[in-house]
Amino acid sequence: MVFGGLEALKSKELRRLFDERRCLWSTLYVSLEGLIAKFDMVLEKITLEGYDALKKVLEGSKTRTVILFTGSKDSASGRSWCPDCVQAEPVIGKVMHELSTSSFAEQNNMRYIECSVGPREYWKDPKNSFRIDEKLKISCIPTLLEYGVKGKKLVESQLTNEVLVKEFFVEDE
């Protein structure tokens, strides 16, 4: 795609391309054909499936990383097999949207990862990688966890409480 100038860089089309990459806004500098543009981007959202994909993304990470662990979604219905995850999804989505459009987004550099733990049968296995990993030790879903911060997590019905979810993200400010 060729852009015709700086105004094109501000276009809805380019913002749509960034939205498709599932980024919430943070500061990002982009060079396209010699033009430099600054976008107001703060929170990066990554959606992935499975333990191996998560470990790959976490390798060498120095950025504050918050991970939401959920049951995988059915491709036909788009709903998770986990009823608690289905209940928590709109609450977490609302809080993330509010944070991405507030001063929080301007002052923080954070990656937000939504990680599906796989089908129900895989999740229920006591030897599941998510359960035995020393840095994760996930025992239930949904779980919201700040990676590398021991004990900082919300689980199950706590994730349907908008106040708790918001406090989880902003308490360190």
UniProtKB/TrEMBL annotation:
GO terms for molecular function: protein-disulfide reductase [NAD(P)H] activity. It comes from Toxocara canis (Canine roundworm). The lineage of its organism: Eukaryota, Metazoa, Ecdysozoa, Nematoda, Chromadorea. Transmembrane segments: none annotated. Residues 50-171 form the Thioredoxin domain. This is Thioredoxin domain-containing protein 17. One of its GO terms (cellular component) is cytosol. It holds the Pfam family TXD17-like_Trx. Belongs to the thioredoxin family.
